[in-house]
């Protein structure tokens, strides 16, 4: 890989394998794993059915760090962030970290300030306010 093609998340150079990948926020992963756990418990003859330790730890992690618990709120967050034509990676970083200020958002996702995007501080502030409103009424 040439030096100019080196992977760099700050510039959205994530590598070929991520070009078409669908990223998930922690809250989305938590919903998927909880559904899988419910399925396994329903299908099991053994009420003490044990999921793998990796599964349990993964579920615990995403539940602990999920900013949104309500499925409707999760859907709304994805819808709000999608309106700003963010890359999947950017959308998930903002959805997971829930920055409160424009400075925090830009520190987490420097590509928000790309001139080709047309996102000024006011637009980023509006986006963050929409996310805060969802969290407030969750």
TrEMBL record:
One of its GO terms (cellular component) is nucleus. Its EC number is 2.7.7.6. Signal peptide: none annotated. The keyword RNA-binding does not apply. It comes from the Eukaryota. One of its GO terms (biological process) is DNA-templated transcription initiation. The lineage of its organism: Eukaryota, Viridiplantae, Streptophyta, Embryophyta, Tracheophyta. Residues 16-138 form the RNA polymerase Rpb4/RPC9 core domain. Gene3D superfamilies: 1.20.1250.40. It is found in: Nucleus. InterPro entries: HRDC-like_sf, RNA_pol_Rpb4/RPC9_core, Rpb4-like, Rpb4/RPC9, Rpb4/RPC9_sf. Belongs to the eukaryotic RPB4 RNA polymerase subunit family. This is DNA-directed RNA polymerase. Keywords: DNA-directed RNA polymerase, Nucleotidyltransferase, Nucleus, Transcription, Transferase. It comes from Opuntia streptacantha. One of its GO terms (molecular function) is nucleotide binding. The keyword Nuclease does not apply. Its main location: nucleus. SMART domains: RPOL4c (SM00657).
């Amino acid at each position: 890989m040439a030096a100019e093609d080196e992977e760099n998340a700050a510039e959205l150079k994530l590598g070929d394998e991520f070009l078409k990948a669908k990223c998930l926020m922690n809250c989305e992963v938590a919903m998927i794993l909880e559904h899988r756990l419910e399925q396994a418990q329903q299908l099991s003859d053994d009420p003490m059915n044990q999921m793998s330790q990796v599964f349990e730890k993964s579920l615990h992690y995403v539940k602990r760090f999920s900013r949104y618990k309500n499925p409707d709120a999760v859907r709304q967050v994805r819808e709000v962030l999608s309106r700003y034509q963010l890359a999947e990676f950017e959308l998930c970083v903002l959805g997971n970290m829930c920055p409160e200020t424009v400075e925090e958002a830009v520190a987490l996702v420097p590509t928000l300030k790309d001139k080709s995007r047309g996102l000024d501080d006011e637009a980023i502030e509006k986006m963050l306010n929409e996310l805060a409103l969802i969290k407030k009424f969750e």
